[in-house]
Design brief:
TIM Barrel; 21% strand; 375 residues; globular
Length: 375
Amino acid sequence: MAGVYIHIPFCKKKCHYCDFYKTLDTGMAGRYINALEKEMVLQKDYLENNEVKTVYLGGGTPSVLTAVQIREILEKLNDVFVVSENAEITMEVNPDDISRIYARDLKKAGINRISLGIQSWDDRILEFLNRRHSAAMAKEALQDITASGIDNISADMIYGIPGMTLRQWKEDIQQTLDMDIKHLSAYHLTIEKDTVFGKMKMAGELKEIKEEESEKQFNVLTDTCRKKGFIQYEISNFCRDGYFSVHNTNYWRQEPYLGLGPSAHSYNGDSRQWNIANLQAYLKSLDQDKIPGTVEILSLKDKYNEYIMTSLRTMWGINFDLVEEKINKESRDYLNNLATRFVKYGMMTKKGNQLMLTDQGKMISDNIISELMMT
């Protein structure tokens, strides 16, 4: 199976924390869609006729496009690629873009899963993040999406925000899980240097929260989700049984995927490629019938590191047999040797051929992954 990611680079407003590629020039949407459709044709052989099981429209803000434009994109995708009849087709949306009519039209266009950017139920925090919506808008958006017949809804939330108390975060999570959602993605705020928050940090105007507070918020997240019957299938992702994000799970299991649009990445097991993160350069390249990207052939070390980095974050963990099959026996032995001390100290557990993080290990997952990678 294979997946397709489509980057919609347009935003009406830039959030203070976001470092994904985006532009406020929404007037370029029509020209961009034409270029996107041309890129599909140029990339039609990338997935080698593998059936496309998942499609994900991310951004940016895909919901700045009309439902007619979304339908056009998906119809072209179906014309060029072999898309499964029951493919999971996800679209990221902002709460203030949603109406009952728009949600209904998205469903008619082929969207069957929505990722809603709620981030917080506290209006003061939303204002601090420079979000466009209010908590009331998010609640109304959920109602409109549900009324449209799309019942596979994921909520995006953020914790680790300066000024956010543990009580606020707990209330945020409880309110989200009390809604009719099937999936939750909860990410710790990362302050990137080229964002508004990054510049504030450099100027001494913003400080990241302390590590012990981050740990408390993470523990509240995992405990609350567990009590509500949500499965933590990846460090930052939780769902009701049967509602895993198929698209993201395929990323973590290293299934091939094609990325379309500026800044989008692609992977086929042997190479990785990425498009230029500039809309004007992207459009110019496609005007010349050229794929606007760079290709990197993966070495055995690259493949090993890629597998460790993606797999260990999931509930399924690392499969030693797969390491030997996809890479080599030396890599398996290398991993087994390094993992021994983490198992000994309770950070990881080994069951048969599987190696997984414990709850304690999840707290320092980035450090463990770094230690297990080849340099």
